[in-house]
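Model: You mentioned two targets. I'll fold them one after the other.
Researcher: Yes, keep them separate.
Model: Target one:
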Amino acid sequence: MRKLLRHTVLLLPLLAVGCGGLRIPPPFKAESDSWGMFGRTPGRTNVAEQGVEPPLKLAWERDITSGMGAGSPLVIGNVVLATNLRGELHGIDAKTGKRIGWLNIGDAIKGSPAVDGNVLYIAIANSRESLVAYDLLDGKYLWKKEYGDLEVTPLFFNDRLYFGNTSGLFFCVDKETGDHDWRFRLSDNSTRKGIRSSATVDGNLVMFGAEDGSIYALDATTGAEAWSYNTGSPIFAAPAVINGTLFCGNSTGTFFAINSQTGNVFWQFDAGASIYATPSFPENLVLIGTTAGKLHALNANDGTLAWTTELGSVINSSAVVSGNVAYVGTLKKELYAVQTTTGAILWKETLKGRVKTSPAIAGGKIFVATDDKLLLAFTSKEQN
């Protein structure tokens, strides 16, 4: 018994260390060019404030112990926040790549956190307490709540959190208590088709896609359905909204431009292969990647094709736009810089792992996660 107790005492400190810890010293606040949410804006437009010109050079790399999910790294001030499929949250110095700290939260985190000041709201898959609020300055949890299996990035809007679960329920949650104000159930969900599409917002409508093939628009205050539109096949990508138009693709490769307030379809485009990522928006264009390895640029007004560039492998994540350059990764372990006006490939780099996560751009760097557990930071070769 004494031997067992001695081993137990020795084990307790090791377990405490294994859980990690993350506390960000003040000041911790967003700069004008921060990438503080998935897609950078509530409309998920994937456009950076400042440019990073190719060719690029590697500034640093950091092991974050596992690949990331379908969200993106977040960059707030001088801090990079990266979640992974092991349920960990890592805080990294954006300038040096040095680890500030890390935290083991639960099971797989497949989206990005939502951020409100110094508080993170994190959705977790395969966990009983699947939505947590964590204070980065105090280094403590504020609350943990049960909302089913979550594989999305929560949307933070008007002091509320909006997200769906894999059972087909969509929630509006109070940020202070973690309790829900309302919930919406997919109609005729007898086959338990779920929600793996992160929400976006325009005006007072929150919008998301679902595996039943429909896009839904709900009143953010009441949860009442404003409109829905059935696209014909499951939707996994998060929609994006710009200038009153919602853009979204589905699993059979049909891409839609829809009036965000009425649900009327402006135009649609057959991309020829599945679309799993949110689009991005260089000036007057919409960029979409497909599982056939094609990056399409469409005219935002009418959906006509401006150009197509073959990248040679599956594109699962969004392109991110920096000036007249779009950066996009593939499952062939390649990162490309593509000129948005012509589709010309300006630069290419072979990485150690596949790119399944959308990059982020802030502070003169582009941050790219690979599925071999590395987070990479690139800068322009012309930058000192």
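Model: Target two:
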Amino acid sequence: MKDILSAFVCIKGTQLQKAEADMLRAFQSAGLTLFMRNVETPEQVKKLTDDIRDAVGRDDFLIAIDQEGGMVRRLRPPYWHDYIAQQQLGALPKTEAQEAIELHARLIARDLHKLGINVVFAPVADTLHTDTTGAIASRCFSDKPAVVADYASWLANTYIEQGICPCMKHLPGHGLANSDPHLGLPVIDRDFAEIERDFLPFQKMSAFVPFGMTAHVVLPALDNKPVTQSKKGIDLIRQRIGFDGLLITDAIEMRALQGSLSEKTQASLDAGCDVVCYCSGHDQNNPTLVEDCIEVLRAARPLSDKALERLEKVNRVVRKPYQAQDMTAQVKRYDALAEQTKDVVLKGPDRTENWSDK
């Protein structure tokens, strides 16, 4: 069997093309991310994930999706439920918030199992601040780290119980950034004591969540490089926060990172990330998508023994058997709780292009 490479890649449309199947077969990436451009109907998505696994030849191949709720959800009505944002979930009284959060995860887990998706890029464990970028703000549970820690843990624990691997993001914290990494490189020029306050949710979840995603932010108190490409930044995640799960970059095509795809891949892996994520998620018409993915895969490396151990932690979650059940009552209860949040004012993206839909 070929080595598993340290990359998540993507495909262009709703059907797997021959060139994409050949790429997946030849290079054996660690996983693949789906976007709205890959989604039409439940039957179509299930066929797509089956075709992807057939091409790769691994039943445990990781297929991920961003399905947080709110503005970041690739699966939407009419075929999938109308899931609310984490900020709305966090606005509920604590007892009801826990109920809603656990229902949120159970219902999304049901959707993903039916589609052949086994990883969800959630929860967002960033802490909300007064100037948090609109690209992150509505995706935060609370402005209190201890509340975020509890709420994000409830969400992650429920996904794990349901056999869907959560990926907490964005380590070591994106809430203090007031600009959008899709557009440029955020710099969090604060005292380290203020930055450290936002570590708490990640520290709590590091004890049981096997997958995490980096933040494309610079912390001048630590280093002048983006955390994703900073050895000091990755050491901070591993040692100060204590996360020893599989560590994936946020999407490397974001403008926060400079250089070619090969250079971005190599710099991220050199810093200590286990896996790079390339998804061209905001360019549905990329004519060189396969070539770009292959560039990333050529620059990637076989997973190290340590990274393979971390991958196995993820696999232990996704191998859990899932028992389908009638969730009609749970859907009604979720909707009743969601209705209580209808007046919550969400802060949206900082730019007019709706990148969250891609």
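Researcher: Noted. Anything on target two?
Model: Residues 5-343 form a domain with the TIM Barrel fold (CATH 3.20.20.300).
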